[in-house]
Amino acid sequence: MELKIRKIPIEEPEVLEIRCHKLTDDVQEIISFVKSRQGQLSTEQDGRRLEIPLIDIFYAESVDNRLFVYTAKESYEVRLKLYELEDMLRGRTFLRIQKGMLVNLMKIKSIKPALSGRYTALLKNNEEVVISRKYVSDLKQALKGGEAK
Predict the structure, then answer these.
(1) Which residues of 45-68 are buried (b: 16+ CB within 10 A; e: fewer)?
(2) What's the whole-model pTM score?
(3) Angle of the 25-37 helix axis to the 82-89 helix axis, nearest 10
(4) Is the dihedral of CA 108, 73, 29, 80 positive or negative?
């Protein structure tokens, strides 16, 4: 696959065009990456292509080598690995809180201590997620306005 980049005058709109013979998994990954950088995540459900705004995502969870993102009332399978999604969301309001979970900090209603150094976060949709003690310091740093490790 050849890659071409061309600088354009500021008055022209920026356009990213993908020319392909077939919509392969690799092309789909590129599309998903670009769209996630624009504030949405692409997925398929029942044979239809869906765009999930990042602002609607409460958390993402890896289960049996499959990645699911959860909104207030729906869940969607996404064709990415958790670490890929984490990289795409770096610098946004998402933080890893377990080995297999990212949470949107803007969707947390409250946080309280739990057993063994862990914490529990109550989300705005009234779901509870556990924050592993390994990630508690990152959470505290992020909530203070700092960058988590």
Answers:
(1) eeeeeeebebebbbbbbbeeeebe
(2) 0.73
(3) 30
(4) positive
